[in-house]
Amino acid sequence: MPGLTPGTVPRTGRRVAVVGVALSDCGRVDGPTPYALHAQAARRALADSGLDRSVIDGFASAGLGTLAPVEVAEYLGLRPTWVDSTSVGGSTWEVMAAHAADAIAAGHTNAVLLVYGSTARADIKARRRTSNLSFGARGPLQFEVPYGHTLISKYAMAARRHMHQYGTTLEQLASVAVQARANAATNPDAMFRDPITVEDVLSGEMIADPFTKLHCCIRSDGGCAVLLAAEDCVPDTAKAPVWVLGSGTSVSHTTMSEWEDFTVSPAAVSGRIAFERAGLTPADVDLAEIYDAFTYMTLVTLEDLGFCAKGEGGAFVEKGRLLRDGELPVNTDGGGLSACHPGMRGLFLLVEAVRQLRGEAGAGQVTKPGGHLPRVALTSGTGGWFCSSGTVLLGRG
């Protein structure tokens, strides 16, 4: 591309677009290694963009390798001059996308590839790893681990607080899982597509009160990649750009005793910042892709992002609003509850949001009145046990 040399840029303050997205093979993937899934997703995203790999001078990855992202970049044959290995759980990728967009706009890099891959399901099946009860027993966590306070139980306790304080019901939480499964039914890549009912959710195996099995995300294999680039690259891309409109990040706590209010997630801060930077409000959003390791995450994040008032999340989600043809389509691919969840799922939110804005979601495509494509999408990732949050607003045209 004339005027663009990897590692150097001619000016600052540029607009930033997502120019390529892709999934690797997902669901039940027993053969490839996590590195292979990274490579598969990266190749597909680059092909989706129509750009030459030489334009990539930035790279972001987390969750794999001793020196992430150096090992993964080496495996992909990349020598980036800008890197990010921020690791904050499920919000990692929204935080990385915010970092990358800022770096591109400031002129530190031209194009940043974000890539993730995991064989979490296959590893357990092959006994290469086992499920863990905690993230460790050092530092602040040493005061909770001896009491068996697992990640799931932390979310369950927060959900119980919301139920106690606002009257949120088990049926309302279950409806989140039911709607996610209904959205997954039109996604050929979703791991689970058969319909479920509220009663199916309520009668399932108890995992951590009040969460039964269907309140919890699935375990899958899979990977994906997202390529962000400066506006200078857009004339050479294969498809219309999806612009980064605004982003926000926030952290809250590690120790549960330091969490001031179990009914408020850090999305209350990251969302407010993202909307302010984009000059938008929740009323402008056509669809939302929200991290959903558990049903309560979806409900409380919707509240904290301003789609409904605090305490009204139960009433908001129970009326079918989250369905693909609902008032606010949420997790249109089926989310982590039904489509895929190989680990840090936040990057999948960006892929699905871009596909929806481009009109590439097939039978799962969201349309607005008059058959128009959505124009604004929100992605919100949550890390740890509501420890961190990243919100990114994307727009078409």
3D architecture notes:
The protein is α/β, with parallel strands linked by helices. The protein has 12 helices and 11 strands. The strands form 2 sheets. Strands 3-2-4-7-1-8-11-10-9 form a 9-stranded mixed beta sheet, with helices on both faces. A two-stranded antiparallel ribbon has the order 5-6. Helix 6 (170-184) crosses helix 9. The longest helix is centred in the N-terminal third of the chain and has 16 residues, at 34-49. It is globular, with a radius of gyration of 20 Å. The two termini are 22 Å apart. The relative contact order is 0.19.
The dominant shape is globular
The proportion of strand residues reads 15-25%
Strand line-up of the largest beta sheet: 3-2-4-7-1-8-11-10-9
The total count of strands amounts to 11
Average pLDDT for all residues: 93
Distance between the first and last residues' Cα: 22 Å
Q: Give the H and E element order.
A: EHEHEHEHHHHEEEEHEHHHHEE
Q: What quaternary form is this?
A: single chain
Poorly predicted runs of 5 or more residues: 1-11
What level of helicity do the residues show? 25-40%
The main β sheet shows up as:
9 strands, mixed
Structural class: alpha/beta
The number of helices is 12
Over all CA atoms, what is the radius of gyration?
20 Å
Pfam families: Thiolase_C_1
Organism: Streptomyces virginiae
Protein name: Thiolase C-terminal domain-containing protein
Domain Thiolase C-terminal: 248-396
List keywords for this structure.
single chain; 397 residues; alpha/beta; 9-stranded mixed sheet; two-stranded antiparallel sheet; 12 helices; 11 strands; 17% strand; disordered N terminus; Thiolase C-terminal domain-containing protein
